[in-house]
Amino acid sequence: MGEIKRPSPVLLITAVFSAAGDAFGWAKRKAESEFGPVALESPVFRVESFTDYYAPSMGGALPKQIWAFRNLIDPARLPKIKQLTNEWEGEYKRTQPCPAVRPLNLDPGYVDLGKLILASTKDHAHRIYLSDGIFAETTLIYTQKHWKALPWSYPDYQSGVVQDFLTECRKMLLKDAKSGLVFSESRCIMRD
User: Which residues have C-beta within 8 Å of that of residue 10, sequence separation ≥ 6?
Assistant: First the structure.
């Protein structure tokens, strides 16, 4: 019988995209107040360079960026984080003037040393139910010193710009792991 162990801390990421001019700043203030400071930011890229899926609900010119947060998390928090980011999307729609049906999209997930996990409210054959209406998928795996796409990996996550950013995230996580981080309730602390 295998020994049950607590999972290692993971690096929380959140992808944000919107055509609304103030959405990135608004979302970043919300996210940093809840998760702590953003440690790494991907270059901004265009969603429409990879897909037109979001155009009907969000518009055609969609900048996207991925943030990685300094404070590591317990991966079990992912369902609550996804619920919270969904609440923020709804709050933004209610309080900020924007003609789009969905003016803000926030997609949280996490990076560990071997994979990128993204949260979703939608079930599919490759997704696993976590809790509270939230599913997770392994979007990329890290093997042989590079990120490997899977048949369902989103086109932008297969791009060099995103994979280079995720490599930087992984390096930061590896450095933190070597420092001896442990969980303390909902955050991680340095081991004495």
Answer: 72, 73, 74, 75, 110, 111, 112, 117, 173
